[in-house]
Design brief:
Blueprint lengths: L11 H18 L2 H21 L13 H7 L11 H5 L1 E4 L4 E4 L5 H6 L30 H16 L2
Antiparallel strand pairs: 1-2
Helix pairs in contact: 2-6
């Protein structure tokens, strides 16, 4: 062609693209390794919240009441007097999800708080709990956690 331009299309590159997409689809179908990494990281961050005595939003947990401090004999650490709740937090990864939580009996009350007497009365008529427990959230995903979760998934998929 005079004054024109010619080009040739070769299909060799399409095989490589197809192969890469197939590997990506296979990895996306089973995100278990990425979910395991996410769970491990979230467990570490949750444990750090116990140590820093802060919620996922970075807010400090409310201090213990003077009555609780008197009964315990100490004001620190807030949710780690026995360490049972701290040690009970675990994660379980799946192909497309990860569960992080605890089965400890009083975890919900610590996470969400509970009003004085909300759980009934003792045999002697006293309220359960004997005082209001303010929420001290330890489970959750901060904005930084969310960014890191997305990074883990992206790096996993890029490895396809």
């Amino acid at each position: 062609m005079a004054g024109g331009m010619t080009f040739t299309v070769r299909t060799g590159g399409l095989d490589a693209i197809e192969s890469a997409l197939t590997r990506l689809a296979a990895r996306a179908d089973n995100l278990l390794p990425a979910m395991d990494e996410i769970g491990s990281q979230m467990l570490q961050r949750t444990q750090r919240r116990f140590e820093d005595q802060q919620g996922p939003d970075g807010a400090d947990w409310p201090a213990l009441s003077p009555v609780t401090v008197k009964r315990r004999g100490d004001a620190e650490p807030i949710l780690r007097i026995s360490g049972d709740l701290y040690r009970s937090v675990s994660y379980r990864p799946g192909r497309d999800h990860v569960e992080l939580g605890t089965n400890w009996p009083y975890a919900r009350a610590m996470q969400l708080g509970v009003l004085r007497g909300a759980s009934g009365r003792t045999r002697r008529g006293g309220p359960i709990p004997w005082g209001t427990i303010p929420p001290r959230p330890f489970l959750g995903i901060s904005d930084d956690d969310g960014v890191d979760v997305l990074d883990i998934i992206q790096h996993y998929l890029e490895g396809a």
